[in-house]
Design a protein that fits this description.
Blueprint lengths: L13 H12 L2 H13 L3 H31 L5 H8 L6 H6 L1 H29 L8 H12 L9 H20 L2 H28 L8 H9 L9 H15 L5 H6 L9 H40 L5 H12 L5 H37 L4 H22 L4 H38 L11 H29 L10 H32 L1
Helix pairs in contact: 1-9, 1-13, 1-15, 2-11, 2-13, 3-4, 3-10, 3-11, 3-13, 3-17, 3-18, 6-8, 6-15, 6-16, 6-17, 6-19, 7-14, 8-9, 8-15, 8-16, 9-13, 9-15, 10-13, 13-14, 14-15, 15-16, 17-18, 17-19
Length: 519
């Protein structure tokens, strides 16, 4: 049921809010996905459309989602279905059903993302014990990672090891989430984010002072910042940059709106939203890109680092970096310590994002079913454990990649397109602009008003159309599946996602009918 008028949780401090929002955005995408995307798309060439996407897509969507979230929170809603209902002045019941995407997608991502985050806890432990030291080439390190991921054919570990770290990670997340906004999520951010930045700066200083092996750190920096202007005509680079912007800022997900719903009506969203976006960009570009890419270039050269990045999403950040730490000058213990800093940094980045991803579903269960915060958090953690085991067991069948594509890639653009149309054309850009400036510490440049109404929607529709034709339709038809035996597992993964959407719609319908009957 609606909780409008009911006292809701709020952030304790502004710095806690900024760090929690930064923790939402600063995740594995900053330190694992961004270096891979940049290396695959020409380094400096990628950075130009990346920053253009930041200005025309990332920043407008960030402000819009902060505004929608605070507006929903002041009317008692912490999840997107209720917020979308408000954007239509409660005259279009279908808006709530579209909003279920802002609950199911972050939940789906939370489930498989937690499993990936648990790898970082495992590799932090293996770094301290020196378990993978001695595997000083890319092929051996890749086999070590694959062995850890495949619990049934593990040669380097017993299958129970990956399961153990997953259970520890999901239990920790459940504990943090059950403690609430101020005592749980905010405290995690206040402790975790400074540690993350400290570890990142220590690693950055070490990488930039590495002696040349195949190349120098300067050549790595030159690769990431020196564009090939002729390649800017490649549409693939622009699409990759726009896609990375969704990952890096966590827009189109539903988590920003939930976090912003715990603001007060007069709390600023203009400056705070810009601050968190800038913090994320600093973490991604200055830290994420300047650690992994130069380090890989030093040991493998530009061509070698690019080849490694093209092998897989985790090869640069886990496989290559695992080899790099073994090749650092000095005693092995220093390499182990550096490896621990890197993988524990990734663990913190992942955990702070996980709690944000779980928050929309927790708020939804509180609103639509009336669960307490503690029981809602336990329910989400329990579901994360149950469906997470599905990924642990069938990871090698490609089920994680299937969920990642539909909920963590294509679905983000679908949701963002719906959201900006509702905000700019249904709610109205004039009302929206006024809402964004309510209690604002800065005035948003007026040029962003037409950008939000015309440029960003056009950007999103173009991206959505292109991805539908080139990727989504072939993906539906499973044209890229090379192992016929994987198809039943992929269909099962799709059915589970659809089931979550259906359950969410049923809960919305139940709540709407109940309120209508009692009104």
């Amino acid at each position: 049921m609606s909780v409008e008028g009911h006292a809701r949780e709020q952030w304790g401090t502004r710095i806690g809010l900024v760090l929690a929002m930064a923790g939402n955005a600063v995740g594995l995408g900053n330190f694992l996905r961004f270096p891979v995307q940049a290396a695959q798309n020409g380094g400096g060439t990628f950075m130009i459309p990346y920053f253009i996407s930041f200005l025309l897509l990332g920043i407008p969507m960030m402000w819009i989602e902060w505004g929608i979230g605070r507006y929903g929170g002041t009317h008692g809603h912490g999840s997107v279905p209720g917020m979308f209902d408000l954007l239509t002045d409660r005259k279009k019941p279908w808006a709530k059903y579209l909003g279920i995407l802002g609950v199911v997608m972050p939940l789906v991502v939370f489930i498989y993302y937690t499993y990936v985050v648990s790898w970082m806890m495992g590799f932090s432990f293996f770094s301290l014990t020196g378990d993978f030291f001695g595997l000083d080439n890319v092929d051996d390190m890749r086999d070590y990672l694959y062995s850890y991921q495949n619990i049934f054919e593990s040669s380097s570990h017993g299958g129970w090891v990956a399961l153990l770290f997953f259970l520890i990670t999901i239990s920790f997340l459940g504990w943090v989430l059950s403690r609430g906004i101020s005592a749980g999520i905010e405290k995690l951010a206040l402790i975790g984010m400074p540690i993350l930045f400290l570890f990142a700066f220590l690693l950055l200083a070490r990488v930039l002072t590495l002696p040349p092996v195949e190349a120098s750190p300067a050549e790595g920096l030159n690769f990431i910042w020196n564009p090939d202007w002729k390649s800017l005509g490649n549409a693939k680079v622009w699409l990759a940059a726009a896609g990375q912007m969704f990952f890096t800022l966590s827009v189109g997900m539903g988590s920003i709106q939930t976090y912003a719903s715990y603001l007060r009506k007069k709390d600023d969203v203009a400056l705070t939203g810009l601050s968190t976006a800038s913090t994320n960009e600093f973490a991604e570009v200055v830290l994420g890109g300047t650690i992994a890419i130069p380090a890989a270039v030093v040991f493998f050269g530009v061509a070698g680092a690019t080849a490694i990045a093209n092998r897989g999403s985790y090869d640069l950040g886990i496989v290559a970096m695992g080899v790099v730490f073994q090749g650092l000058p000095g005693p092995q213990i220093l390499g182990q310590l550096a490896a621990f800093l890197w993988f524990f940094l990734l663990f913190i980045a992942g955990v702070t994002s996980c709690v944000a991803l779980a928050s929309p579903t927790i708020a939804f269960l509180q609103e639509e079913i009336g669960l307490t915060r503690r029981n809602a958090a336990r329910s989400v953690a329990g579901l994360g454990l149950l469906l997470g085991l599905f990924h642990v067991v069938f990871y090698q069948k490609g089920v994680l990649d299937e969920w990642d594509y539909w909920a963590g890639t294509f679905g983000l653009v679908v949701f963002a397109t719906i959201e900006i149309i509702l905000f700019s054309f249904v709610f109205g850009i004039d009302r929206g602009w006024e809402e964004l400036h309510e209690g604002a510490d800065i005035k948003i440049p007026r040029i962003y008003k037409p950008i939000m109404k015309w440029v960003t929607p056009l950007f999103l529709i173009t991206l959505l159309t292109w991805w539908t034709v080139t990727e989504a339709i072939p993906n539906v038809l499973m044209q890229g599946v090379t192992e016929a035996g994987d198809i039943p597992y992929l269909w099962l993964a799709r059915i589970l996602m659809i089931a979550l959407v259906v359950v969410g719609a049923i809960l919305i319908r139940r709540s709407w009918v109940h309120k209508t009957t009692n009104s």
